Structure prediction request, 200 residues.
Amino acid sequence: MKRISLMASFFSFIVGLFSLSASATAYQVAEAYSGLRSMALRTNPDSIGIKIKESSEVWGVLMETGYPEAVASLVALADGTVSLYFSNGGGIIGLGPHVGPRRAAQSFLASSQQFAKQVLPTKSYPLPKTSYTRFYLLTGNGVLTAEIKEDDLGNNRHPLSPLFYKGQELISEIRVVDQQRQAEQGASEGRSAGKPASRP
Prediction:
């Protein structure tokens, strides 16, 4: 029941963040999204201060899910980077300093190490098909990947289901931060609107 509730919450949150201009028939890939995604997939860990102990160590994970509206890309790196962004533009970045997302991201990364045998090496980085989730595990030996039906992952019918749920737990923490940000922004706007107009 907890997993079903988590998936429903995840889907509602993700769809609510999509741009309303998204196409329902094909992914729209915003230039900013493409740049951020490429940077995450192609970055050398040393260049961002990540020191890996073994070549097989996973230092970053991308979990991408295809929806009719767009692709949602969750990124967690060992340098503390935590982001959630969308192929048609927009997203939530700068989440690493927040305790909830940081802890969930660390757990997501730690868990990914045990699934290295469930993924395959790749030199290409396609977006997932609609209703599929694709994992990219960034290691010292290169990038590993696997694409699975989201329904199979969500219903614990695949060996990578535990990693999928770790990713959803991270997204739940991101949702909490996003709601806090919106509440703070609303309160700030409310205070500004309540100020008396200055005399000419």
Q: What stands out?
A: Residues 161-194 form the longest helix (34 residues). Strands lie at 58-66, 71-77, 82-86, 91-92, 120-122, 132-139, 142-149.
